[in-house]
User: Fold these one by one.
Assistant:
Number 1:
Amino acid sequence: MVYMSEPQVQRTRVDAPAMPQVYDHFVRSQEHLLRQTESNPLPTTIPPPSAGLAGASGKRHVISFIGLPYRGKPFLAERLCRYLSFFHGTKCRMFDIARPEWKDDAVLWDALKVFLEEEDCSATTQVMMALDEIECDQHQVFRKNVDSGRIAILYSHDEVSTHSQMWSGSSKEHRWAMQTHLEKLSMHSRLLVIEVIVNDAGLVRRFIRNRDCTNCGAASTEGEGEREGGSQESVCSTNGDAEALITAAEAKVKEYTRVYVTIQDDGSEDELAYVKLYNYGHRVVTNRIRGFLFMRIVQYISHIHPEPHQLYLSRHGQSTYNAVRKIGGNPGLTEDGERYALWLGAWVPDHICTEGPGQPHRACRLWTSSMKRTIDTARHIPHPLLELGDGQLWQQMSLRVYRNLDEIFAGEYEGMTYEEIERTSGDEAILRKKDKLGYRYPRGESYFDLIARLEPLMHELESYKEPLLIVSHQATLRMVYAYLMGIDRTEAPKLDIPLHTVIKIQYDGFGRQGQTVTEERNPGPLVSAADGQRKL
């Protein structure tokens, strides 16, 4: 989102700290609505366009991931940070306390204070507020309530080396000290401790291979640890013995269990807000989880899992509106679009429903929007009945239709070309260019509205282990792709999702490094260059 601030205001000196007389930060495309007019000399503020801008996460938060080594805490921390930033507009910063610069508790505490107490009205206040008559102590409360939130996420990729640090949260005393420190901040910050408990030996071994066996065919690291701290030397690179490495790692875990103190259920830590996450959502225990943001965090991490899986994204085939460069509407497919639908129906069984030539079919899922062009694109995909290994039956590629996946609604400009919009509504075209993410079509939607309606589907998507094909629209898939690939949401409206292309996102189950993107293009004519949707 692009923000502007004008004019520069004077600060008034009072007994309490100085405060601005007027905050006038707002979404650029709504600037004209905030100005006084003859008919409206006292304009109201503009409601934020999505829950992520409504101040629901306005408090400062510190989230600490704790637990035994090789449980995937950096992986969870990175995914949670991405989710909160993308869907809730929070400013997140991750702190790997095993990094050299954070080894000193006092240094880390200073960094946390700077991050959590910094005033950031320009990035969080979405409306123009006149504060001339508000007392300074009231201003502090007001500022907290309109802030879109700051969240510091703490974790360690080397728990053994950081055990003695207060911010490791590895004992009752450390967790109590963390909470006590945060209560001293001028802008009170809430602490949430998430303990990751994995007693599945096979999964623990996978995390060991993923983090340490970089030269034994596994992924590079357990989440953010290596990406932030530099390449770790792999034991496998010197002796090629992965089993010896695993044995050594398991011995290290056993040694760490002698000093690590799990969150106590005897009442001694009942004042602590915490989550105990067993085996990635198989069981979840919560304590003092109150408020919108904490509930969303618990819901989200309950869905995340480290199992390898694939996601496939495709726009619908060329529609009759694409052919004449119109936006919106509910048209059907052209001949080229129908040709792509037939190609997709033949391609899916051999490339999604099986892991390779000659391999048995596996359970897969299919989502489309509620619009005719996506349903028509997916209608040739077969839906055989599979018998799974446990004796259950599975309807292959059973169609699930979601209105959440519909194209962005252009309101009064549905069925128009961009040339027509620029000719008849030049001011609106300029406003949209100023702020493509925040601009809302007259009586239509903005990309923020799109983000809000996609959030519940992304929770559902995160819980799946089966391959999933999503057939949707350019604006919608821009946001889905950006979220999945860790692209900032301000960049998402600039992405190009071409027609007649399948995009594959491969997760290895351990984070962003495991994602690869390939494209499978329909061998027929490519029509995406003139589909009329580039500016949507």
Number 2:
Amino acid sequence: MRFVEKNNLDNFIFVLGGSYFKDFENILNENIENLGEKKDKILKIGYVDDEDMSALYSGAEMFLYPSLYEGFGIPVLEAMKCGLPVICSNTTSLPEVIGDCGIKINPYSDAEMLAAMEKMYFDRDFREECITKGIDRSKMFTWKKCVDVIQNKIIGDIWGAK
């Protein structure tokens, strides 16, 4: 909300998707309620089907993903593939997924998150560069390549064990 207030962006809405741990959801709901009139700027949509995801991405200004626990980061990859500039955690596997195609932040730092959102929103050249690089980078990650890497590793381990 600081991003919206500081920059006087009355039409900006935060869309929160996915599922949450129960304890986190309770804290999230409480924080949203504490916003008073501003709570209308936050839209919780829960789980989104794959078929609806690209439509949701296409209407977004940026993708903010300050995840603390991430196995790979498929949502970040999907966002890049759909042409969204990405801001994500500088932790877990996310820096490897995003590369130099967006902004990596400390997920515990509100100041870093705010600065990253402002950079992505107001620096249109940087934003376009992130979009272009993100689309290109997303092509590196395919299920076929994943299978090939795993298959080669297994075959290498089998032959190496003999």
